[in-house]
Write a structure and sequence with these properties.
Distance between the termini: 30 Å
Strand content: 15-25%
Largest sheet: 9 strands, parallel
CATH superfamily of the largest domain: Aldolase class I
Radius of gyration: 22 Å
Bound molecules: phosphoenolpyruvate, manganese (II) ion
Length: about 375
Amino acid sequence: MILILQPDTDQKSDVFQSLIAVLARFDGIRYRVHEERGMQQKLTEVYLIGDTSALQIEEMGALPGVERVVRVSTEYRILGRHKDDQRATYFEYNGVRFGQDNLTILPGLCAVDTKEHVEAMMRACREHRLVCTRMGAYKPRTSPYSFQGHGKACLPYVFELAGKYGIKVVAMEVTCEAHVEEICQALRTSGDATGVMLQIGTRNTQNFELLKSVGRQREFPVLFKRGFGITLEESLNAAEYLASEGNRNVVFALRGVQTEKGAPHRNLVDFSHVPVVKRLTRMPVCIDPSHSVGSRDRAPDGLLDVFHVTAQGIIAGANLVLADFHPVPEVALVDGAQALRLEELPHYLEDIHTTREAYQKRLALGGAAG
Ligand code: PEP
Ligand code: MN
């Protein structure tokens, strides 16, 4: 059960203290307070943990300072959507809104290789008024002999160039706590030239200690990839680890699931789960068509499979698109085979725009209002 307090409730106030005094008397029920500072107001939620079945919504709603009460179903307490749940389905970070009702495109390098390529990519983003990109610095690779990413060595120029080209959010995978510290330090040194969204890769979906440490920090939002070989429910539970530690600014990314039945694609595309994740949780949903398809194969109609698959996610209401681009895919050190070329960016964006409009028309026909 979640008690949502009146906005701007001060934890030192008499109202809050009397509420806590009542909660402390409940047998076998613990409480946990979560505070979220928005642009306009401070929101406080109190989570009641334990057997709350005997508690009545009306009685709890009448406690001091309580505005609303949400009875949570068993799973995904914080990130989930529950009955009569009006909690936010968006968050803002560094001036960018990530929500279940809007769309943000993050084209970028799977892995940072040279400063020149980073600059070319960011220049292309600015030309198209895009303020988010992906830039892999730490690359978890299948083989220990493959390029592992430039790590912290590339952060200074990545952040400096991001600032130069007006990039507000750089999505970047981390695989351990030290990476988060390195990113934090490099950002400070750059004068906070940009913002970072920490990516949890599919190989780390159930790395619970990593999730706990990334969840404990609340500076950076998280782009969380579904696990490639586990159920959707298991992946959503794993995402909840981030929120249960305090960080609820989480985007859930679909990137396909691994099965030989996915062939000829690298992974079996799972973008039909976009509306499912939006129904079960309050997280904005990202699609990663590049790691799903894994190639530049083209259909007889002339469109790349990556384009087709992106459209499948967008038409179903996806909120973010994470896509591999590269100025010269032939020399990319990671995943060049699936990267789109910078010259393809205008076409890609136009295709996404067209499909998003179609999605909005579908809503008007009988979606949210119907
Ligand atoms: C990536 O986005 O660079 C990546 C490695 O993706 P995934 O974790 O989905 O394989
Ligand atoms: Mn990749």
